[in-house]
Amino acid sequence: MWAIVVAGGSGRRFGGPKQFLPLAGRPVAAWSVAAARTVADGVVLVVPSGPDDAGSGDPDPDPRTMGADLVVTGGDTRSESVRAGLSAVPDDASIIVVHDAARPLATGELFASVVEAVRSSGVDGAIPVLPVADTLKRVADGTVEQGVDREGLVAVQTPQAFVAATLRTAHRGAAEATDDAAMLEALGATVRTVEGQPHNLKLTRPEDLVLAEALLGVSDR
User: Fold this and answer.
1) Count of domains forming the chain
2) Quick check: 21 and 28 in contact, CB under 8 A?
3) Residue 184's domain spans which residues?
4) pLDDT in tens, 23-73
5) Cis bond leading into 48, ω under 30°?
6) CA–centroid distance for 219 within its chain
7) Residue 76 belongs to domain with CATH number
8) Are strands 125-131 and 191-195 parallel, antiparallel or unpaired?
9) Phi, psi of 39 (to 5 degrees)
10) How much helix, strand and coil, in percent to the nearest 5, is found in the chain?
11) How far is the C-alpha of 112 from the C-alpha of 55, rounded, in Å?
């Protein structure tokens, strides 16, 4: 079993690349690589393509020092970056886990949960989810159009685990999606959900990094 840690984004909403910024003494991406390694035989780290995209928190960080077995260059979109990672995963891998490096607090237990769901349930994929707690509204031009019923809605996280052959089939061509589960859904594949982790936040804004530091400070990781 192999894992792909996607760290190829530009961090536009964050204000710059974030995947190699320091977090509790380690680069952000290193936390995800370490968690992926608890279940994977090998880890592929996908890094940005531009020479100035490696991050600003540490001068010229070397992704190869973060514990990954292989480092590959990503593409312009998340899906392209995942495909770059897939090209490096050995053909005999039966399960592939895909995880966003921007979620450095995902635990080894969560990785194990999605992998076990695929292994034991005969499904094509497994993703962690959390119930939507907030009231939802559909708006246009700053005006509320209508409320959205939360029944059956969930927030989706990574890591996501997949039968390797199905994931490769889903990525053939140039399909684009915000996560890999959506590509499997387009094939009619079966994707199961497991319980996500509330602290598995995605680093989107600079203050999220401060929150992640605080959460790591009170965890037993």
Assistant:
1) 1
2) yes
3) 2-218
4) 998 999 999 999 999 999 999 999 987 644 444 444 445 666 788 999 999
5) no
6) 21
7) 3.90.550.10
8) parallel
9) -120, -15
10) 30, 25, 45
11) 29
